[in-house]
Amino acid sequence: MAVITFSINGEPVSGRQDESILEIARQHNIRIPTLCHLDGLSDVGACRLCLVEVEGTAKLFPACSTFPSENMVVRTDTDRLRRYRRTIVELLASEGNHQCAVCVVNNHCELQNLAYQVGLEHVRVQYLFPRKDLDASHRDYIIDRNRCVLCTRCVRVCHEVEGAHVWDIANRGINCEIIADMHQPWGTSDSCTSCGKCVLVCPVGALIEKGATVAEMEKHRAFLPYIMTARTKHEWIARAIEED
Amino acid sequence: MTLEELDERGAEERARQEGFKTRVLTCTAAGCTSCGAQKVVEQFRKSVEDRGLTKEVEVVETGCMGLCGEGPLVQILSDETRYSRVDPEAAKRIVDEHLVGGSMVREHRIDPDMPFYARQVRVVLQNCGRIDAEKIEGAIAVGGYTALAKVLTEMKPEEVVEEVRKSGLRGRGGAGYPTGLKWAIVRKAQGEQKFAVCNADEGDPGAFMDRSVLEGDPHRVLEGMAIAGYATGASQGYIYIRAEYPLAIDRLRTAIKQAERLGLLGNRILESSFSFRVDLRIGAGAFVCGEETALMRSILGRRGRPRPRPPYPSEKGLWGMPTLINNVETYANIAPIILRGSAWFASMGTPKSTGTKVFALAGKIRNTGLIEVPMGVPLRQIIDEIGGGTTEGTTFKAAQTGGPSGGCIPAGHLDLPVDYESLQSVGSIMGSGGMIVMDSTSNMVDVAKFFMEFSVDESCGKCVPCRVGTKQIALLLEKLRAKKATIDDLALLEELCVMVKETSLCGLGQSAPNPVLSTLRFFRQEYTDLLKPKLVFEPSDGVA
Fold first, then answer.
1. Residue A234 has what pLDDT?
2. Contacts of residue A47 in chain B, CB cutoff 8 Å?
3. pLDDT (tens digit, 9 = 90+) per residue, A171-190?
4. Cβ-defined contact of A173 to B495 (cutoff 8 Å)
5. Structural domains of chain A in order of their starting residue, each with its CATH number
6. Are B246 and B327 contained in the same domain?
7. How far is it, in rounded angstroms, from Cα B400 to Cα B405?
8. Residues A221-234 pLDDT 10s
9. Which of B190, B327, B396, B439 is most enclosed, with most CB atoms within 10 A?
10. What does pTM read for this prediction?
11. Cα dist. B201→B47, B209, B263, B325, B428 in Å?
12. Could you give the CA distance from residue B169 to residue B188 in angstroms, rounded to a whole number?
């Protein structure tokens, strides 16, 4: 695979052609905020937080699913991008019921971290205050759809890693929600293996373990690269890469 | 079937038709059917029989005749007389007075010099409303499948691609991508199998071009697809059509069956080595499935959600194979280009937008219906002459093109030539051809709100800007309409529109704010009129 050089924020970088701009940026310690991306899962380019500018075109490209070409000039941190990222987090905050103070993942939440990162001080648009279903029928876990950001990590981890495909999306647009099997209570799902991967990859407090209370639950996602390396490269790495 | 047999079939059918003294055509496309065309056809059949004219008069059901607002429409072929608003009573009179008595029924007659017909140039719609769409012989009699025969016997695939490229034909689905270039890419792309897809998922409010073409002349589209298959190396075609078009689906199914039976589709077409199958895929009513990557997922039986491009379908499409995706009208333009040459096609329209375009005229206009004009005609000609102007007592305010992805063109730009670039320069798009006319009674904020609510409903929900952004824009418009918005809300509205436009994943989100942005550009006053004064707290001089 050919190695190419190009620049990110004026800095010359190099990478393989099959590595996304996001991967190469991270290797060079350039931070690009992400939400739907998770190492080990396929990329869908849905959250639009990792959008970057490429010189010569007015279009913005998602870094997670865009592959660089020789001498490409990429910018990840312009005023325009910063403004858009803040608006995206603002829209997400308005969409669900995100009350950090009473949330089980308070202080361990990716949406909360993003809000700090992009400098979201207040929300200018209307809060939508959804009244979606909360499903606590599973023995060990709960899904609270009002806190869901629809990143579809749970859908992908269940399909791609566990191979069960319990989760999928029902409805469309603003009424989208994550459902188990054919929209039935999670506890009655025949396909669910209760492995808990969906709970661990959920960036927010939508999928949680039972029994945890406010700010108690921390999620560990390092198991994914561990499994995926073993599966794709047939190498057992002693310890998965530390999360940032 | 061989080429000679095809010609023979055509001649036979023409002779059969000439055996009748006249033919009575009744439009039974969706529009006229909904106002009772079936009863009119029955009455014609009955009256013709009662009068003992069955050997002299043939009663034919056709596709759209254009003037949809005046349906059901009837045409007497022997003297080209057209009748409008024909009910069974009028049908009986037409047989008694016109066919037997020889005098026209004046009350229902359409003025033959009406600019609606005189100003049109019909290429795509050439046979629409003039042939029986449910009999392949009708299509063959007017030259159907001769373009396919020509490419199979006289042209190499490269030459077909080159001919289409030279014609300057651009995608009629809205974006206007050069068709020849797309074909060349698919031709060059590597893959064990290639596919040619026809996008018939027409979903813009007020648009019915593709439906009318499929209902009126389905064989023209099938022929175009087969030629595209030959040129690009595709052996399988799919027509992705929405379930809301039952008549078009029926007529397509019939057309495919008939073409396969005659060896004009399927294995070894016209006894050459070229094989091309066409299957239908029915959409379940999602606007987003008209977006090509979502459309492909839907064909595969999965949830219709777009994915980032590149890779484009021409490299990685259905099952990862190179896939050509063109719109109905694009395919319908292919046969005439092959038969009459690229130079003829390029001579119509403007240098950058060649050929003709079909528009569906709707809204506050006198002549509602389906029209076809050369690219580059001034908008004024479409509205005032062909459309007959706005309804009594009102004045033209704006024309909306491109549906929920397009914008409004105000009266000040009436002399704008209608082509891809000019429409874009005023913040609208060509789109697939829907044209909704608004008069002085229309409120532009309401128009923007209507289209935004459409986009909220039709967003697939995958990316954040489109899923939540369109909802928030719609809420701001609602607030504005309730006279509760301040100048800050208006600024936020504009900011969100630009943000959604630039950050959304697919064309639906990227173009969803266009109706708001374009009405803000030309009718800002209507927005500011609805603002409520901003409350400003000023320190008072003393304690009250």
1. 81
2. 463-464
3. 999 999 999 999 999 999 99
4. no
5. 3-77 (3.10.20.740), 90-233 (3.30.70.20)
6. yes
7. 10
8. 878 888 888 888 88
9. B327
10. 0.93
11. 39, 11, 27, 12, 21
12. 19
